[in-house]
Design a protein that fits this description.
The chain is mostly helical. It contains 12 helices and no strands.
Length: 269
């Protein structure tokens, strides 16, 4: 059945095959009773084959050309990270999957964006001690380290795309998950995330926001970070207020995103 699902998806590029893959992944996950290690390993190999096919599709097409399949793919990935965190985090596909998700934040449709943002938030969670998990086991330091290295390498582009979405392109229903992802980044890497936010807001089109406004925002963020965990939560409110104000004043300068345009995702296997 797994072979038929893999060949069916490669041929048709229809998201229903990813939905079925997700069901198989859950049914034969590592924490299920009466499932032998050989079967679990085979199912995970099947998942990686489906992921490779999807990354090839995202290399060939813009996110706007395949939003429904992107939604199904990142819903599948939420399950994969939940049930196979060790295998996925250490996989060679872990970084390109994340990069593809960042590029997909250019979408303007609610459901695929929420699926991608949920995955991104879960990945960020694995950079700390209390990730979303199907077990109560502690998150090993080696997992935290791999995720933190991924965030360090991709965080600047991720922050840029989340802020661009919150200011310009996200539907209203995506604001909570966007700001939640930023909150997770601030909790994990406060100083680095503040620097990425600073750099992003200074990319906004000339005349849309003043230097004084940006300086005031960044001073507020840095003063909250000194307060520790409670202060970090207040940073989320500051960014929500800033992005909401920007969105109200400049309804939709989508033609002039300029330096906030996402990079085209590329994948070679």
């Amino acid at each position: 059945m797994a072979t038929k699902l893999a060949s069916g998806f490669a041929t048709s590029r229809q998201g229903c095959f990813l939905w079925a893959t997700s069901a198989v992944l859950r049914e034969f996950s590592e924490d299920r009773e009466h499932v032998d290690d050989q079967t679990t390993e085979a199912i995970y190999t099947f998942f990686e084959a489906q992921s490779t096919n999807m990354l090839r599709i995202m290399n060939d097409l813009l996110p706007q050309e395949t939003p429904d399949v992107i939604e199904d793919f990142y819903r599948l990935l939420v399950d994969a990270l939940l049930y196979y965190p060790h295998k996925l985090v250490h996989s060679q596909l872990f970084t390109p999957i994340f990069q593809a998700g960042v590029s997909a934040l250019a979408l303007e449709q609610r459901d695929p964006l929420i699926a991608v943002l949920h995955y991104i938030r879960d990945v960020i969670g694995y950079g700390g001690e209390n990730p979303p998990s199907s077990t109560n086991a502690a998150n090993p330091p080696e997992i935290q380290s791999v995720v933190q290295q991924l965030i360090l390498s991709q965080g600047e582009e991720l922050v840029k795309q989340i802020l661009a979405g919150m200011m310009i392109t996200f539907p209203d229903d995506c604001f909570s998950d966007g700001s939640g992802a930023l909150l997770g980044l601030f909790e994990l890497m406060p100083e680095a995330t503040a620097a990425w936010v600073d750099k992003t807001v200074r990319m906004l089109p000339a005349g849309t926001v003043s230097e004084a406004e940006i300086d005031r925002l960044m001073a507020g963020i840095r003063s909250r970070l000194i307060e520790g965990r409670e202060g970090v939560r207040k940073v989320r409110s500051l960014l929500q207020d800033f992005t909401n104000n920007y969105r109200r004043r400049y309804v939709a300068p989508r033609d002039g995103l300029g330096r906030l345009e996402p990079e085209r995702f590329r994948f070679s296997s």
